[in-house]
Amino acid sequence: MLYELFSVASSCYYASKQRKPDAQRVRLISRIKELFSMSRGSAGSRRVVGWSLSDKPDTDLACRALEMAWEQRGRPKNVMFHSDQGS
Protein backbone atom coordinates (compact mmCIF):
# COMPACT_ATOMS: atom_id res chain seq x y z
CA MET A 1 0.00 0.00 0.00
CA LEU A 2 1.11 3.57 -0.63
CA TYR A 3 0.80 4.56 3.02
CA GLU A 4 3.33 1.84 3.87
CA LEU A 5 5.67 3.01 1.12
CA PHE A 6 5.64 6.58 2.48
CA SER A 7 5.67 5.46 6.15
CA VAL A 8 2.49 7.26 7.20
CA ALA A 9 -0.49 6.02 9.16
CA SER A 10 -3.20 4.53 6.97
CA SER A 11 -5.77 6.87 8.54
CA CYS A 12 -3.75 9.89 7.35
CA TYR A 13 -3.38 8.45 3.87
CA TYR A 14 -7.07 7.70 3.39
CA ALA A 15 -8.16 10.99 4.97
CA SER A 16 -6.12 12.88 2.38
CA LYS A 17 -7.48 10.71 -0.44
CA GLN A 18 -11.08 11.58 0.45
CA ARG A 19 -10.84 15.34 0.94
CA LYS A 20 -12.00 17.74 -1.74
CA PRO A 21 -9.34 19.62 -3.72
CA ASP A 22 -8.44 22.96 -2.18
CA ALA A 23 -7.84 26.18 -4.12
CA GLN A 24 -4.07 25.62 -4.29
CA ARG A 25 -4.50 22.16 -5.78
CA VAL A 26 -7.02 23.46 -8.33
CA ARG A 27 -4.54 26.18 -9.37
CA LEU A 28 -1.77 23.60 -9.66
CA ILE A 29 -3.88 21.33 -11.87
CA SER A 30 -4.84 24.21 -14.16
CA ARG A 31 -1.18 25.32 -14.32
CA ILE A 32 -0.07 21.81 -15.28
CA LYS A 33 -2.65 21.79 -18.07
CA GLU A 34 -1.38 25.19 -19.24
CA LEU A 35 2.23 23.97 -19.23
CA PHE A 36 1.24 20.83 -21.11
CA SER A 37 -0.34 22.98 -23.80
CA MET A 38 3.02 24.77 -24.16
CA SER A 39 4.75 21.50 -25.04
CA ARG A 40 5.56 20.92 -28.65
CA GLY A 41 4.50 17.64 -30.23
CA SER A 42 5.77 15.99 -33.35
CA ALA A 43 3.54 16.34 -36.41
CA GLY A 44 1.55 13.20 -37.04
CA SER A 45 2.02 11.78 -33.55
CA ARG A 46 1.06 12.59 -29.99
CA ARG A 47 4.58 12.09 -28.67
CA VAL A 48 6.00 15.15 -26.92
CA VAL A 49 9.43 15.91 -28.40
CA GLY A 50 10.12 19.24 -26.70
CA TRP A 51 9.03 20.84 -23.45
CA SER A 52 10.07 23.53 -20.99
CA LEU A 53 8.98 24.91 -17.60
CA SER A 54 8.70 28.54 -16.58
CA ASP A 55 7.00 30.86 -14.10
CA LYS A 56 5.04 32.47 -16.93
CA PRO A 57 3.93 31.46 -20.43
CA ASP A 58 6.12 33.72 -22.55
CA THR A 59 8.10 33.63 -25.78
CA ASP A 60 11.21 32.31 -24.03
CA LEU A 61 9.26 29.28 -22.79
CA ALA A 62 8.01 28.46 -26.28
CA CYS A 63 11.48 28.97 -27.81
CA ARG A 64 13.13 26.62 -25.30
CA ALA A 65 10.50 23.94 -25.99
CA LEU A 66 10.96 24.37 -29.74
CA GLU A 67 14.75 24.17 -29.44
CA MET A 68 14.48 20.95 -27.45
CA ALA A 69 12.19 19.46 -30.11
CA TRP A 70 14.65 20.53 -32.82
CA GLU A 71 17.55 18.90 -30.92
CA GLN A 72 15.55 15.70 -30.33
CA ARG A 73 14.95 15.38 -34.07
CA GLY A 74 18.64 15.70 -34.90
CA ARG A 75 18.64 19.40 -35.95
CA PRO A 76 16.86 18.88 -39.28
CA LYS A 77 17.40 21.41 -42.08
CA ASN A 78 14.69 23.22 -44.06
CA VAL A 79 11.89 22.77 -41.53
CA MET A 80 9.03 25.11 -40.72
CA PHE A 81 7.33 25.65 -37.37
CA HIS A 82 3.77 26.90 -37.04
CA SER A 83 1.81 27.49 -33.85
CA ASP A 84 -1.72 28.66 -33.22
CA GLN A 85 -0.96 28.98 -29.49
CA GLY A 86 -0.15 32.68 -29.61
CA SER A 87 3.45 32.46 -28.34
From TrEMBL:
Residue span(s) of domain Integrase catalytic: 45-87
Taxonomic classification: Bacteria, Pseudomonadati, Pseudomonadota, Gammaproteobacteria, Vibrionales
Coiled-coil zones: none
Family annotation (InterPro entries): Integrase_cat-core, RNaseH-like_sf, RNaseH_sf, Transposase_IS3/IS150/IS904
Protein name: Integrase catalytic domain-containing protein
Organism: Vibrio azureus NBRC 104587
GO molecular function, one term: nucleic acid binding
GO biological process: DNA integration
